[in-house]
Every structure is written in structure tokens, then in C-alpha cells.
Design brief:
The complex is a heterodimer.
Chain A: E1 2-5, E2 8-13, E3 25-29, H1 40-47, E4 52-56, H2 72-86, E5 91-96, H3 98-109, E6 114-120, H4 130-137, H5 141-151, H6 154-157, H7 168-177, H8 183-193, H9 197-203, E7 208-213, H10 225-230, E8 234-239, H11 246-249, H12 251-262, E9 274-276
Parallel strand pairs in A: 3-4, 3-5, 5-6, 6-7, 7-8
Antiparallel strand pairs in A: 1-2, 2-4, 8-9
Helix pairs in contact in A: 1-12, 2-3, 3-9, 4-5, 4-8, 5-7
Chain B: H1 9-15, H2 42-49, H3 64-77, E1 81-85, H4 88-99, E2 105-109, H5 114-123, E3 130-134, H6 139-145, E4 150-156, H7 168-177, E5 182-185, H8 190-193, E6 203-207, E7 221-225, H9 238-241, H10 252-255, H11 260-273, H12 279-290, H13 292-311, E8 316-320, H14 330-336, E9 344-349, H15 353-362, E10 367-368, E11 378-380, H16 392-397, E12 404-408, H17 414-430
Parallel strand pairs in B: 2-3, 2-4, 4-5, 5-6, 10-11
Antiparallel strand pairs in B: 1-7, 6-7, 8-9, 9-12, 11-12
Helix pairs in contact in B: 1-3, 3-12, 4-11, 15-17
The chains are: A alpha/beta, B alpha/beta.
């Protein structure tokens, strides 16, 4: 569906369902420089299980118009503006990577608007290697290749997708190639410069879920430790043998963690790839 | 800066898509010879059917062994995914049926495999889909054949029978200027010699029966999506951009930014037309692909030696191989096919139809049959077999003469193959003419 936020057209995938104001809403926020399609399995599940789903394309990404937002704080504010545009008073936010940081910031600044937050592949801080930033700044294709190489666990980089017939690494690369020039650099710089993560975490009042990839090289698990400590009402799921592209690498592990957190009691059963800590 | 450490082609040939079997530790990809797969619970079942979870339901739609093959060819081609089907012809049909409706039009190279030509020229018109055939070397002909109803451009990397090299960059550019995808049959070259996506093609298919397998024991096809084509940029592809009532009003291009074509092909084409690949077939093709880089290099090495031998032989009138400076696409081949132009080519003897037959019958190592891409060397004489009802005049129009011989060079010792050809050429030259 389409809506308008800050006078720019914005696309949100809804799982082929009409938006129902009577239902709770879950907003899915992608990472750099992706779009809504990284959530296709998980978002579709919630759209067909008593939730409104807004799997958004951030400004300048995917189908959405406008320029990419230059800071995590701006993206967090934009998410709340999206809720305003949709007439949604409170929503659960689910973010991955850059989207996780924006979700965290939105939940900290606008506690009354966020019922729950799930952070997938989070790290605070989330530093980006100079080599990657330089390549992204030059719109060098090597930046996409570097991210692809670092985004999967060693096993998943060679395949074995749970979604039949889709080559995960090639699909991830191709999705990034579709991003507009400069978008990746803007997104990575926003991650790199975000310094308020721990302060934000201390202000978050809603229940939170952190989903960590055991083999994540983009947001290494060690960089989530302080974030976990700073969150008051938290549960953590570590996906074994999983890298940063967890929605593709462990689609059921991610979905089951989200189901347990968003639909059911947190003790709901998880798949063998998911370990509830 | 750091250089990306991309996995090499040889390694992908062995490992892409596969991992040791988590249930048994089996290192080889298991043959999941099962028609269907158990649902853990009802909610899981519903989620699988509604594409909320990933997994296998029924082996017509997907199968774990076939999925390994699909990932492997995707990795080798540099695509986003693939669908394994019953044959190369099934792959071509699936591509067309996914994108085109009655009233749609295709522009295709006229230098096609006969089976593809049959489908386009004789069968699809019955379903309202028509094709204009053009000289693959004539870009103006491609351009002038495009109509408002055109939805696809199609050619072979190496055309049949003259090995016309498809100028993929220019034809793809033309296609994209008109908002159309380019589909390429890459059977003769395999991704070892040419990766069409790197030159602008949007969809690639293979008869996996040929070089990908190498052993000549299965029939199979693979359809690969580059994930690059923007189906949403026009209203030409409603099968991908409008709700599909046959699958919960899914809009495939919204569901997947990169793999909308594959989604529709699997959720409709394989589901409804049913030309799926058997898991045993997928396993056997995987065994072949493991050695693809080694085999293709040997195929090319042997072919080069045989081309050199035939070119110098007094009873040979012409050899059509794009590495020869006499071939009209020599320069294009140097650009697109630096590792070699494959192992299938035609040559003409200075003789009659009967002498051509005598040549074939005198061969001892080359097998006389209608296939290419086997590990064993193969030969066919079109004028006395596939085209035996065709007049000499029509043969010439198709780029064939009464003395044309097509070889598929295998992996035997090149000296033995040359000896075989040498003896047969001698006997044919001494045979009486027609």
C-alpha cells in the first residue's frame, strides 16, 4: 500500500491485506540498503495472523520516494511520523540492523507509541569498517560484495536456503544493486555515527526482544552485550550458526522468536536453530 | 581497500547449495525420493501453503535435492534463483508461460534448436502467442520486429547450426530500451564459458541433459533468473504486477523485489503445468556439475585440436567454429567467449549426401545419435537424419548443406578422435558420390 509521510510517497507491504484499524499493527524496518522484501516470509505470517503489517520501504529505498534519512534518530522520528500518517496510536516495531537501531531510538523517544520492540542483528555501537565506508561512498560495487560476504555464516554463504530455489548470497547482492547511488553510504554512515544507543536503551520501557546471529560478522554478538544489559525488560534469542542475514538464513528461527514475542507467551517453542536464553 | 573474497567458480561447482546432510552427515547430497513432506502441525502446514514459512510440501512444487541443484546453477550463473524442470523444453515453456498471455509476441533468433523452433513457430500460435524470427546478427531486424505486444526477446548463446554468437550486450540493451527482458538458451556454453547475466541477459535456461550433466543419462532443464529485470516499470507484465487470484491475490513483484518471476513460475507454472524434475535426476545432474570446469576445459581443448585438423584436411570444405577468423562472429566470440566456443560445431565435407552418410558410418569412436554435450564424442549428419525430408535448397536456407556434419566433441584423447575422423574422411572420400 501507499501512504504519504513528510510529503513523500511511501510504500509499505501489507501481506496483500487491507489495513484494518481495529487490529494491532506491526511495523517492519529493514536494514541498509534493503527494502521490505527482506521480511517477506515473516511479515506475511503476521499479516495472516491477526495483525496489520507495515513492512516499509524507508525513504529513498525500494519503492519509496525521497532521499535516504541521514541519521538513526531521523529514521526513528520518521517511523513515528509513519504511525501518525496511518492513524496508528501504538505499534510493535521490528527492525533489522540499521532498522534495529532506528527502532531502538523510536522506542526510547516515543515510548507511548511503541508497544513492543524486536531488534534483529543489533549492535551498539555499530561501527562500519573504513574500507566498506570508502567503497560505499564511491558507489563501488565492491561494497555490495563485501557486505554479501560478511552477511552470512560461512555455511549459509554457500547456500542451503530454506526457501527452495533461491540463492541467498546472489539474492542479497542483487537487492543491494537495486539501491540508488549513495543510499548505501548514507545508511552505513548513519549506523557508524549512532552514539546514543545505550542511552536510548536505558529509556526504553516496553518489552524488548533481541535476536542475535551467533555467527554475525556485520553486527558481532559481542557488540550487543552492553545493549542487552541496558534494556530493562528484555528477552534474547541467539540463532545458532546464523549470520547477519537472519531472515533469510533462519527464517523459521526468526519467525518463531517473533511469534513468541508478539503473539504468544515468550516461552513458546522455538525451532532447533533458535535458543531462548 | 579490502578486496571482496568471492568464492571461485570451481568451488561453487562442488559446494553451492549443498551442505552435509544434517540428519545423517552424508557428504553427498541425498536423493530425497519422497513425493511429499510431513507438516509438524496444522499452523505450520497453513504457513507453508501461504508462503509464510520456507520449506517443502510436495515434490512437484519443490524438493530438497532439486533445490540444491537450483541453488548451484544460480550461483554459477550469478542469478538469484532457479527452477529445475523436466527438460530444456520445459524450461523454455515455463519462461514463456510465466510472462506471456494470448496475444503476446516474441522476437527470437532464427538460429534456434529445432525443438525450440517447433514450440515457437507451430505450437504456441495455437495458444495465441506468436513469434517473429530474425537473423541474430542483424540488430536492426531485432528492433524492427518488436511490436507493442512483444514481451520477450530470445536467442541462443551459440546458434544452431552455424554457431552464430548472440551479441548479448547489444540485444539485451535493445530489449531493455523497449522495457523487455532477454531470455537466453545457454546450453552450449554453460556458465563456465559464458555467463549471460554479466552481459545483460535477464533469464537463462539450460538443457541440463547436455554439458551440465556430461554423462548423457538424464533429461532435465534449468531456468535461472538474474533478478535484475524491473517488471514493475511498465504494465507489460501483469502476471507479476497484478493480483493473482490463483494464489491469494498475491502480487509477485511486491512479494519479492528480485525474484518475482521465479515466484510466479513456481507458484503457477510448476504447480499447474507440472513439468517438474525428479530428485534422482537432480542428483545425477549435480554429480555432473561437480566436474563441469574440468570437463568444459577438456571439451574445448579437444575441440580446438579437431578444428585445426579438419581445417587443414583436403576433403573438408568448411569448418564453422567462432574461434576461426573465417567465422562471421570471430571478433564477438573473442569478446564474449574468451575461454572457448564450446564443443559443438559443424563442418562440411566435399561430398554428397551419400558420402556424408558413409563418413558417419565409418566412425568408430564418435557415436551417431541425436544429442550433444555428452562426455563421449557424438556425430550426426543432418541431411540424412534430422533433415532427411528437407530439400537441398531448404537445407541451404537453414545453413546446412548435404555434406554438413555436426560434431559434439567429448573427453576422449584428442589423438584418438582425430584418428577416427581421419579414417572416416578417407573412406568417405573414396565412396562413390550420389
Amino acid at each position: 500500500m501507499w501512504t504519504v509521510v513528510h510529503r513523500e510517497r511511501v510504500y509499505a507491504y501489507t501481506g496483500a491485506r487491507d489495513f484494518d484499524p481495529a487490529l494491532p499493527t506491526v511495523v517492519f524496518v529493514h536494514g541498509a540498503p534493503n527494502d521490505h522484501s527482506v521480511w517477506s516470509l515473516q511479515s506475511r505470517y503476521f499479516a495472516h495472523h491477526r495483525r496489520n503489517v507495515l513492512a516499509i520501504d524507508l525513504p529513498g529505498h525500494g519503492r519509496s520516494a525521497g532521499a535516504p534519512l541521514e541519521s538513526v534518530e531521523c529514521i526513528g522520528e520518521w517511523i513515528v511520523a509513519l504511525l501518525d500518517a496511518m492513524g496508528v496510536e501504538r505499534a510493535a516495531l521490528v527492525g533489522h540492523s540499521l532498522g534495529a537501531l532506528a527502532t531502538l531510538d523510536a522506542a526510547a523517544r516515543h515510548g507511548s507509541r511503541v508497544s513492543r520492540m524486536a531488534l534483529l542483528g543489533p549492535a551498539v555501537p555499530m561501527p562500519v569498517a573504513d574500507a566498506l565506508l570508502d567503497a560505499a561512498k564511491q558507489n563501488d560495487h565492491a561494497a555490495f560484495e563485501l557486505i554479501t560476504g560478511w552477511s552470512f555464516s560461512p555455511g549459509d554463504l554457500l547456500g542451503g536456503n530454506r526457501l527452495p530455489g533461491v540463492w541467498m548470497a546472489g539474492n542479497a547482492l542483487r537487492l543491494m544493486e537495486r539501491s540508488r547511488p549513495g543510499v548505501l553510504y548514507t545508511d552505513l554512515l548513519a549506523c557508524h555515527r549512532y552514539a546514543g544507543g545505550l542511552d536510548a536503551a536505558a529509556k526504553v520501557a516496553c518489552p524488548s526482544l533481541l535476536v542475535i546471529g551467533e555467527r554475525d560478522q556485520m553486527a558481532v554478538p559481542a557488540n550487543a552485550a552492553a545493549l542487552i544489559e541496558a534494556l530493562a525488560d528484555r528477552r534474547v534469542v541467539t540463532l545458532s550458526e546464523c549470520g547477519h542475514s537472519m531472515m533469510a538464513e533462519a527464517p523459521d528461527g526468526v519467525l518463531d522468536a517473533l511469534r513468541a514475542f508478539l503473539l504468544f507467551d515468550a516461552s513458546a517453542a522455538l525451532t532447533p536453530r533458535g535458543v531462548l536464553l | 581497500m579490502s578486496k571482496p573474497k568471492n568464492t571461485h567458480f570451481d568451488t561453487l561447482s562442488l559446494h553451492a547449495g549443498a551442505r552435509p546432510d544434517p540428519a545423517t552427515g552424508a557428504r553427498a547430497t541425498p536423493i530425497y525420493q519422497s513425493a511429499s513432506f510431513v507438516f509438524p502441525d496444522s499452523d505450520h502446514a497453513a504457513a507453508l501453503f501461504n508462503m509464510e514459512r520456507a520449506g517443502h510440501v510436495y515434490s512437484r512444487i519443490s524438493n530438497p535435492t532439486c533445490a540444491v541443484l537450483e541453488e548451484r546453477i544460480s550461483a554459477l550463473e550469478g542469478g538469484v534463483g532457479a527452477i529445475a524442470v523436466a527438460s530444456g523444453q520445459a524450461a523454455l515453456h515455463l519462461a514463456i508461460a510465466t510472462l506471456l498471455d494470448s496475444g503476446s509476441h516474441i522476437v527470437a533468433s532464427r538460429a534456434l534448436y529445432g525443438g525450440s523452433h517447433n514450440l515457437l513457430d507451430f505450437t504456441l500460435p495455437r495458444f495465441g502467442i506468436t513469434t517473429s524470427f530474425v537473423d541474430p546478427r542483424d540488430l536492426d531486424a531485432w528492433k524492427s520486429a518488436i511490436r507493442p505486444q512483444t514481451r520477450l526477446l530470445f536467442g541462443e548463446t551459440l546458434g544452431n547450426p552455424g554457431l552464430d554468437v548472440l551479441d548479448i550486450p547489444r540485444v539485451a540493451s535493445l530489449a531493455h530500451d523497449h522495457g523487455l527482458p532477454l531470455l537466453v538458451d545457454s546450453t552450449f556454453t554453460t556458465p563456465y564459458l559464458l555467463r549471460p547475466f554479466e552481459h545483460g541477459a535477464d533469464l537463462v535456461y539450460h538443457s541440463a541433459t547436455k554439458f551440465l550433466s556430461g554423462h548423457g543419462v538424464v533429461i532435465g532443464g534449468l531456468l535461472v533468473d538474474s533478478g535484475r529485470f524491473d517488471w514493475t516499470s511498465s504494465d507489460k507484465f501483469p502476471t507479476l504486477t497484478e493480483p493473482y487470484t490463483g494464489f491469494h491475490d498475491m502480487i509477485f513483484a511486491e512479494e519479492s523485489t528480485t525474484a518475482a518471476f521465479l515466484l510466479r513460475a513456481r507458484r503457477e507454472g510448476i504447480r499447474d503445468f507440472g513439468a517438474c524434475m525428479a530428485p534422482m535426476t537432480a542428483f545425477q545432474i549435480l554429480q555432473g556439475i561437480e566436474t563441469l570446469p574440468l570437463r568444459m576445459q577438456r571439451h574445448v581443448d579437444n575441440t580446438r585440436k579437431i578444428v585445426a585438423f579438419l581445417t587443414a584436411h583436403p576433403f573438408v570444405a568448411a569448418v564453422g567454429y567462432p574461434e576461426l577468423t573465417t567465422h562471421p562472429d570471430h571478433h564477438l566470440a573473442q569478446k564474449l567467449l574468451p575461454l572457448g566456443c564450446g564443443a559443438v560445431f559443424s563442418f562440411s565435407i566435399r561430398g554428397t549426401r551419400d558420402q556424408g552418410r558413409r563418413f558417419i558410418e565409418s566412425l568408430r569412436i564418435f557415436s551417431h545419435l541425436a544429442n550433444v554435450g555428452d562426455a563421449k564424442s557424438l556425430v550426426i549428419h543432418p541431411a540424412s537424419t534430422t533433415h532427411f525430408r528437407v530439400s537441398a535448397e531448404k537445407l541451404r536456407a537453414a545453413g546446412i548443406d548435404e555434406g554438413t556434419i555436426r560434431l559434439s566433441v567429448g573427453l576422449e584423447n584428442a589423438d584418438d578422435l582425430i584418428e577416427d575422423l581421419s579414417r572416416a574422411l578417407y573412406l568417405a572420400s573414396k565412396a562413390p558420390g550420389a
